[in-house]
């Protein structure tokens, strides 16, 4: 997706096994292939809690070069989690491999509770779904400049459109595959997260600052984009060319909407 390489190789597969749960059919088990995600097992990794406790106990375990590399890997994970709106990142699925003086790496596994149909912050007044990594010290520093330039160069309307097309194909394997409205809601959240990510990178914010941004959703209106092609490059130019257009002037306008159920008064044509 964003060429960040912090999630182990994952594929959609069909597997069958007598150890799987199957419902009974006329008193018999129908052992048939089940579809799901299959993620490559990573060797030599430990939970974040274990590694971080070791680093806190012995400050000399982590060299300056290793800390800088981990900072970069951590920021990559923050970007992935933010875009997919991961609601379940914790220290048991943030894995770290550290061999002092030789190797340091990070693996963000178990990303099943992602791509929600609505922003989790807006579904309940009593239960929040914060990005737990936002309180860690590595989330306080501004994004690495090389990483910042790399991601900003990718986040064009064309890239986001292709990404959404690929995600639609992926979502066909989910429980919402037959419900177009649910899939569309998932993509609106993704587009909103990407919009906030780009704004955070432009403002040179830290992952912690990015996590505090107000959640938005973004609809797509391909017809308007084709009828009025802007003479600007990149997502910001595409947005700024339509900022002065009121929503009421176009029935099929694409808008950003701030959850819950509150739309802004500009016509933002993107993706």
Automatic annotation (TrEMBL):
Gene3D superfamilies: 1.10.1070.20. It holds the Pfam family PI3_PI4_kinase. GO terms for biological process: endosome organization; Golgi organization; phosphatidylinositol phosphate biosynthetic process. Keywords: ATP-binding, Cell membrane, Kinase, Membrane, Nucleotide-binding, Transferase. GO terms for molecular function: 1-phosphatidylinositol 4-kinase activity; ATP binding. It is found in: Cell membrane; Membrane. It catalyses: a 1,2-diacyl-sn-glycero-3-phospho-(1D-myo-inositol) + ATP = a 1,2-diacyl-sn-glycero-3-phospho-(1D-myo-inositol 4-phosphate) + ADP + H(+). Its main location: membrane. One of its GO terms (cellular component) is trans-Golgi network. Its EC number is 2.7.1.67. It is a peripheral membrane protein. Residues 1-226 form the PI3K/PI4K catalytic domain. It comes from the Eukaryota. PANTHER family: PHOSPHATIDYLINOSITOL 4-KINASE TYPE 2, PHOSPHATIDYLINOSITOL 4-KINASE TYPE-II. Belongs to the PI3/PI4-kinase family. Type II PI4K subfamily. This is Phosphatidylinositol 4-kinase type 2. The lineage of its organism: Eukaryota, Metazoa, Ecdysozoa, Nematoda, Chromadorea.
